[in-house]
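Minutes, project check-in
Item: structure for the 408-residue chain
Input as provided by the requester:
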Amino acid sequence: MAQYQINIDSKILHQLFLSNAKDAAMASFLEEVLNQILQAQATEQLRAERYERTDERQGYRNGVYPHRLTTRVGTITLKVPRFRDGKFSTEMFARYQRSEQALVLTLMEMVVNGVSTRKVAQITEELCGSEFSKSTVSDLCKRLDPIVHAWNERPLKDQKYPFVMVDAMVIKVREEERVRSRGVMIAVGINAEGYREVLGIMLGDSESEASWSEFFSWLKRRGLCGVDLIISDHHGGLIRAIRQYFQGVTWQRCQTHFIRNILDATPKSLQPEILARVRAILAAPDRETAVMLLNETLAAYETKAPKAMAILEAGFDDAIAVLALPEKYRKRLRTTNGVERLNEEVRRRERVIRIFPNRASALRLIGALLMEIDDKWASGKKYLDMTDYWDWRERQTHITDSKIVKIC
């Protein structure tokens, strides 16, 4: 990874600490840093500093051209280098611009369609300038929508995804002159190499079995395969859809939601001690220990907290399904925390929008944001080292084959 030496004017640094000009100072800071990086990239590609004479020089500078970039702290102007042969290139802002452009576009749509609040109008002016038209919105849609659509419809058949996390969040969308609640379904997969991927998003009318069935059917049509474990919360429609479309796949009930369900049914005075007991059960090293701790807890509290114990006993097997896996994989696969962090990123943007002007706008913003996160995951560290998992799977296969031979 390239490293750059950046010089920042002390006046810019001073302005960052002034409460009345933080956004403007941050915009100046960002503009200065990015422009210095662009010049450094130009030097790398030419293999020579400005005015430097060297046998290794690959070309010559030809001035700069301005490029406006819209950010959360305002619009900045980048001075993009020109080369005489026209070969300067940078992909530095490609991922960043997708989600920023989607945010700006959604805000613009809201104002154009007359459904914005005063706050959203102010934000739009800060991000986009005071003047824009419906044709500007249309042009941006034409450029951004195909990119998001192609990513969300990409084939999945070239990879196996042993672990899949699914979750949904509710957003508000304006449809037929009414504000309606819609479910955004998101799936995150961990592929055979151990990298996370956002497998796709879909807007449904609700979190019903029909919506989840449509979502899973769509993922499988795109080639989702090799699934061994699905992690989700205990939503009834979701569970029925999982059992229908992923028969034979183990379902892991999110332990965070499971604990919450138990505590909601527990008398307040007993919550601390029952919480400690449930955590001990879920953290057990093996199923035998977990069963022993379960029986002790049921015996101690079945009369004091009968509703809580009924939930604990009924959900026990699904909540400890992860114990069948090697120990190193259990911590990250026992909850839906991974996909819920994505939801938090979406929520951060959604709070600005509040009400999406239409479904296309919601898919555009959320899709562009998830594309950016997906790119970071692909170029970052592995989420899990899958070596032990595949060794474990191979041993499980041998054990199964041996049992079949003995029966025959």
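Outcome recorded: Residues 22-46 form the longest helix (25 residues).
No further action items on this chain.
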